[in-house]
Amino acid sequence: MSEAAPGLPDSEAFATDERAQLAAAVRKLIDATMTTEDADAETLLDIARATEQLAFRLGGSRDEGPGYRPRSHGDYLPRSPIVGEASPLSPRIDWRQVDANDGSLGIEANGTFGAAYEGPPGFVHGGWVACAFDEMLGIANIAAGHPGMTARLTVNYRKPTPLFRELTFKARVDRIEGRRIISSSEVYDGETLTAEAEGLFVQPRPELAEQYFGPRPD
Predict the structure, then answer these.
(1) How many angstroms separate the Cα of 42 from the Cα of each of 45, 46, 190?
(2) CA dihedral 118, 122, 128, 129 (to 10 degrees)
């Protein structure tokens, strides 16, 4: 299990090993749907019907967000579309805390983007690269004790980022200016830098944070 923000534990009722296994199985189905070109019509329809039956078994007859409810930030990361072990949308990028150059905490992360994330043939869509940077920077901010909301994200695409290769993300907080946090990140294919980003994040005033997200857990 990936850990959520320090001091904000994952929801035990949601982020279970069993749900992670289900999400991994759905990822395989998504990847097979995106890459299998020689399946006949009958096979595709059979799998579609079986998938609909499984969705009904899990969520009932409601089509949009069965069981959805507002929740605390503490159980966000398991649902993340980038690092969430419980999200079938996630390419499963696993992250860990590391020491940054100035002695503060940053993060490094490794993962692979599959066919569902394709933009140019053979490469990750630039929008997914930007989404991954936003997530890496946000987690780095939390790891360093400076959570904030994204105000600006600037991405420089140096080379196409390949599909089906293990990538390495690095991220850290560069400086703090009052409620403003400036952070930076890079992604590498082996030793090759494919893209880099700088983000400006803002810590909302306590009354706004409570309005947006509810009271923080103790």
Answers:
(1) 5, 6, 42
(2) 180
pLDDT tens for residues 101-115?
666 789 999 999 999
3-class SS of residue 210: helix
Q: How many Cα atoms within 13 Å fall on the side-chain side of residue 70?
A: 5
**For residue 117, what are its two tokens?**
């994330």
Q: Residue 179 has which token pair? A: 């409620």
- Residue 51 CA to residue 63 CA, distance in Å, equals 14
pTM of the model: 0.80
Top CATH class of 1-218 equals: alpha beta
Widest CA span in the chain: 61
Q: How far apart are CA 111 and CA 181, in angstroms?
A: 26
